[in-house]
Amino acid sequence: MIRQAIVSVFSLFVIAALALAADKEVKGKVVKVDAAKKTITVQTDEGRKTYTANDDTKFIGPKSGKSDAGIKDDRLVKGAEITLLIAGNNRTIREVHLPERSHN
């Protein structure tokens, strides 16, 4: 009986840890892109946040095409609305969903 209770409590802790470590989606407007530091700062409803890209970060266009330019993509400009998929550590960008190119 006690062993079953311990297993149940442990299972709840594991599930809670996995939930906290899950990726999250962040929507916001680009404030700043620092290609040298590989960071993107966005203004969200919760405030200004800075996240870090790495070699595994995917940059995806609005029609699911991959951007070969990565963090240097010309759509990552101040004011552009983007969606980020952030890793469970709440710092690392897994995916950047880019807006359509403006045809000015």
| Annotated CATH topology | OB fold (Dihydrolipoamide Acetyltransferase, E2P)
| Number of DSSP helical runs | 1
Helical proportion? 10-25%
Tell me the count of domains: 1
Secondary-structure element pattern, one letter each: HEEEEEE
* DSSP, total strands: 6
Assess the beta-strand content as a share of residues: 35-45%
The CATH homologous superfamily is termed: Copper binding periplasmic protein CusF
Give the rounded overall mean pLDDT. Answer: 86
Derived from helix and strand composition plus strand pairing, the structural class reads alpha+beta
Rounded to the nearest angstrom, the distance between the terminal CA atoms is 70 Å
Q: Secondary-structure map with pairings?
A:
Layout: H1 2-20, E1 24-34, E2 39-44, E3 47-52, E4 58-60, E5 81-86, E6 93-97
Parallel strand pairs: 4-6
Antiparallel strand pairs: 1-2, 1-5, 2-3, 5-6
Describe this structure as you would to a colleague.
The protein contains one helix and six strands. The protein starts with a helix and ends in a 7-residue tail after the last strand. The mean pLDDT is 86. It has 104 residues and is α+β, with helices and mostly antiparallel strands. The chain has a six-stranded mixed sheet, with no helix packed on it. It has a single domain (23-97), classed as Copper binding periplasmic protein CusF (OB fold (Dihydrolipoamide Acetyltransferase, E2P)), CATH 2.40.50.
